[in-house]
Write a structure and sequence with these properties.
Layout lengths: L4 E3 L5 E5 L8 E5 L10 H14 L10 E7 L15 E12 L2 E7 L2 H33 L8
Antiparallel strand pairs: 1-4, 2-3, 4-5, 5-6
Helix pairs in contact: 1-2
Bound molecules: zinc ion (ZN).
The site of zinc ion has 6 residues, from loops.
Length: 150
């Protein structure tokens, strides 16, 4: 679909098919980073407090990827069709909504591109903190510790 592109930030989900008893359910698998939870309960609670203090939903939170693309123009005699440099870079925002359904559009101005970069980073940061909090809570639950006394 995209040729000659560089993915500048990764999709946070991957999609694939799993055969299960003759049906083909479509699964979305979130590939989480695994956080260190083999700490003392006190250290986990301390980390949890820190994470809760960090958690903030920024107004410019955006789950998407920024894609850099070089392309050929419509002029047959242009150098881009004869081994010369292609045009670009052009920056696209791509957002995977479902299997085969991608929202994609060109970011025309440097201001748009910068806004996209920082919004994508804010989303990534929020997601990481939330995921770490979730893994700590799972570990606390396993230890039969209360989850709500922080
Ligand atoms: Zn050209």
């Amino acid at each position: 679909m995209f040729s000659g592109l560089g993915v500048l930030s990764h999709f946070d989900s991957i999609f694939f098919l799993v055969a299960l008893g003759g049906v083909l359910p479509i699964l979305t698998l979130y590939m989480a980073r695994i956080y260190e939870t083999a700490k003392s309960t006190l250290a986990l609670r301390h980390r949890k407090r820190w994470l809760l203090a960090q958690l903030k939903i920024r107004p410019d939170c955006l789950r998407a990827s920024l894609v850099e693309r070089f392309s050929q123009c419509g002029k047959a005699n242009c150098q881009c069709h004869h081994g010369g440099e292609k045009h670009g870079p052009f920056y696209y925002l791509t957002q995977c909504l479902a299997v085969g359904k991608i929202n994609k559009f060109l970011l025309k101005t440097p201001a748009q591109q910068q806004a996209a970069r920082s919004a994508i980073e804010h989303y990534r940061q929020l997601q990481e903190h939330l995921e770490e909090l979730s893994q700590i809570n799972a570990e606390l639950l396993r230890r039969e510790e209360p989850l709500r006394n922080d």
